[in-house]
Amino acid sequence: DPFLTLLYSLSSSLSESELSCLKFLCQDKIRKRKLESVQRGVELFSILLEQQEIERDNVSFLEELLKNISRQDLVSQLRRFVEEEAVKAPDDQPDEHEKPVEVICENVGRDWKMLIRKLDFPEVKIERIVAANPCNLREQLFQSLREWQKWKGKDAKVTDLIKALRLCSMNLVADKVEQ
Questions:
Q1: What are phi and psi of 108, to 5 degrees?
Q2: pLDDT per residue over 99-149, tens digit each?
Q3: Closest-CA residue to 60 (of 71, 80, 75)
Q4: Considering the entire predicted model, what is its pTM?
Q5: Which residue in 45, 104, 143, 179 is a FRET match for 35, CA 20 to 30 A apart?
Q6: Ranges of H-type helices in 88-168
Q7: By C-alpha distance, which of 46, 17, 47, 42 is closest to 32?
Q8: Domain DED, which positions (predicted)?
Q9: How confident is the model at residue 96, as a pLDDT?
């Protein structure tokens, strides 16, 4: 994954004092106990990814952190990555023409979590989405699929959605997505 490679590269470029500064700047985002255990940049980035503070298509928080520790070189590296990603073609990623997300949202009801779990989407993210949209099943499903697409990036394939639907015995929905 190019984004994880970038984070690893950024992490490798950080000194101990810079990591300490980053940890200090993240105190309002990460619990103290978790921060104390962080010894390397990749560990900090993993927590920030898990908590959705940084994402492949939203690196503004990370950029701000790097600016605050005066690492303009790393900010430039991050911006280059974002620009390159914007230029790349989406391959077999669900797109506007196929609209599988709309079809799924229109046809999958209460069992949406089963579908999302078949896509190996992290349980923590599912819980966050449910908490953010407590009374709206359709929005929970829509946000979950959107987050799955972001999480998978270019590996988010329509064929994976169809396979997951079939594993959940949602064959009618899978057929509609295929059409």
A1: -105, 130
A2: 788 888 888 888 888 988 988 888 888 888 888 877 888 888 888 888 888
A3: 75
A4: 0.51
A5: 143
A6: 100-107, 112-118, 123-132, 137-152, 158-167
A7: 47
A8: 2-80
A9: 44
pLDDT in tens, 23-74: 999 999 999 999 999 999 999 999 999 888 998 888 999 999 999 999 999 9
Q: Quickly list H helices, 13-122.
A: 16-25, 32-37, 41-50, 60-68, 72-87, 100-107, 112-118
Neighbouring C-alpha atoms within 13 Å toward the C-beta of 26: 31
Residues 6+ apart with CB under 8 A from 15: none
Spell out the domains of the chain, with CATH numbers in brackets. Answer: 2-87 (1.10.533.10), 97-178 (1.10.533.10)
